[in-house]
Amino acid sequence: MSSPASDLLDSLPAELSQQLKEHVNRVLLDFIRPNSASQFAQNSPVLAKFREAIAQGDSKDDVEFLHNFTALVPITSYEPYQPFVAKFSATPCREADVKDMFSPGLPCFLAMTSSAFGKEPKLFARYRPPPQCVRDPIYLAIPSSEGTIFAPSSLRYLKVLRIDHEDGQSSHEVVVCSASSGILRMQMNWDVEHDMDRLDLWVPGQTAPFVISIVEGYRPFFILHALFVLADPRVTIMCFVFANVFATLVQFIEDEWLLLVDCIENGIIPNLENIHLVRGVLEKHFAANPVRAAELREIGPPGAADGWAVRVWPALTTFIGITGDSATAALPRVWAYQVREAY
């Protein structure tokens, strides 16, 4: 299947262009003004010219403030940032030392980049954005009556950092995790401390229960998601951070097809590593479905028939995922399975 035709405009009408510019400037100001009082903004050498211009000008003038920001704040490397973010890893870590480090208050989490060539991952403090900039996960916006959404996400984390409050009695915990995990936790207000209390949770409209998101291990994570999504014929949307995750999922389905279909028929959770503590919860969520298993056997595994995805999930219309860089290679496979819209 060829990729869908594009309806993108070459340019915006003048009125819309002006509205967009004003909106962008408002959003920038919502972030820049509060952050300009942070420890980083007040002390980093790379922002010295910006600080000087703000001190000498009219700091309440939005136009001047934005001009100074765009003209005097350079694009930087991680090097100027690193000494400031490293303070969160100090032992002990005191609130007074890290409060307002990059933005007002304390961060929700520290996002870590993928490490390469044996190097340590880079850490970036992520704060809760202004209320007008907060978005709910897509699956919370879709009524369950319109089908389900397959949006696999891992909430696993590397470690939890403790920040001691000034009273000496209490502390604030900051999780170190991937950006996608941290953003989802922030959106859903899911702290690490209460993960075990959410084991029975199943967010309406999702194809799989919460517990899969905290399962440790690459293979168990994908096998369990494959099991639950294959068992659900109501899927309308598939949503991934990166499109190549879809290709990985399909490969697991292809490799474990017989096992997955047998498990769906009999309502069995397969024997997988690292799930012994949550097996009971998974079994409560998974019932035998011989009718669905028969449908899947008739269709066959990935690659057995044209338009495999829309035969397995007849209501599937939309695929959402980042398709740039290395994820671009997954697009031909998306089209091959006849997902009708991809973003």
What features would you highlight for this structure?
37% helix, 343 residues, 4-stranded mixed β-sheet, 8 strands, 4-stranded parallel β-sheet, alpha/beta
Overall domain count? 3
The percent range for strand residues is 5-15%
Widest beta sheet: strand line-up:
2-1-5-4
Query: Could you estimate the helical fraction of the residues in percent?
Result: 25-40%
Low-confidence stretches: none
Instruction: Give the helix/strand class.
Output: alpha/beta
Total number of beta strands: 8
What value does the Rg take, in angstroms? 24 Å
End-to-end C-alpha gap = 15 Å
Pfam families: GH3
How is this structure best described in words?
Pfam families: GH3. The strands form two sheets. A four-stranded mixed beta sheet has the order 2-1-5-4. A four-stranded parallel beta sheet has the order 3-6-7-8, covered by helices on one side. Helices cover 37% and strands 11% of the residues. A hairpin with a 6-residue loop joins strand 4 and strand 5. The chain has helices at residues 14-35, 39-43, 48-56, 62-72, 82-85, 95-98, 179-188, 218-230, 244-255, 257-266, 279-285, 290-299, 308-312, 331-336; strands spanning 109-112, 123-126, 148-150, 159-164, 171-177, 235-242, 318-322, 341-342. The chain contains 14 helices and eight strands. Helix 1 crosses helix 4 (62-72), helix 8 crosses helix 9 and helix 8 (218-230) crosses helix 10 (257-266). The chain folds into three domains: 14-72, no CATH class; 77-136 and 156-189, no CATH class; 142-153 and 193-342, no CATH class. It has 343 residues and is α/β, with parallel strands linked by helices. The mean pLDDT is 87.
